[in-house]
Design brief:
single chain; 278 residues; alpha+beta; D-amino Acid Aminotransferase, Chain A, domain 1; D-amino Acid Aminotransferase, Chain A, domain 2; 2 domains; eight-stranded mixed sheet; six-stranded antiparallel sheet; 14 strands; globular
Length: 278
Amino acid sequence: MTKDIKAVYQGAFNSLNNIKVSPLSRAYLFADSIYEVIPFQNKKFIYAQEHLERLIYSSSQVKIKIDIERVKNEIFHLLEESDIQNGYIYYQVSRGIDITRSHIYDQNISPETFGYLMPLDLDFKKQDLTVSICADIRWSRCDIKTTSLLGNVIQMNSVSEEGCDEIIMHRDGLLTEGGASNIFFVKEEKIFTPQLSSNILPGITRAILIEIIKENNLPFEEGEFYIDDLKEASSIWFTSSTKGIAAVKRIIDLDIELNPHEALLKKCQSLYKEKVSS
């Protein structure tokens, strides 16, 4: 399958099957890298500029050099050369290839870039998610989109055997986010979401949904919320570039009834699909 997947490494386009990456990459040795996942539908990127701006933010926070015009040219070239109509491009920038494995990196190191394109059904049909509540064991700069995702991986896999699709993470009871998404919930016909912090990724779909909510004058509040707040929720939603807006059907840790077909949810899902398709 990989021989048919379009990819680019260090500016050279090839099939993913032919890409060769150095084992001395700091992405490989230290997870010293940042990335973006940019979806497209009908061969049109969904909010590409916002994803690129977040990549710039991540690069500024970890001081990885980045040529954003080169990144832009490469992702658009990958899309143009592909026959895939719906999918996403994964694009990663590492600090570079360093022959000396050291926590102190060479200040003159050149960045290493890699991207590839994958098909994905973007009809956002995956609903009725089963989730579990987990402690947030990640580092303290989750606002940076780095490839260091071991905390997410550990917690999501710890509950996958129980049939869970996602997790709801918290720090001492304070809601943060999902393992690969942001969280919204509805209580008494009002939409809530945790406010951004260093423990929460500024999700692109999260921002789009908030824009939709405000444009349509829907009751809404950002703030600090706790696991106990979910006990009174009528519905809980996850947002991400690949999920869209997905509803939770069941939390295995809480004995509560959730409505994955709530009218407010359906309204937001419909408005979201209209916005990303326009």
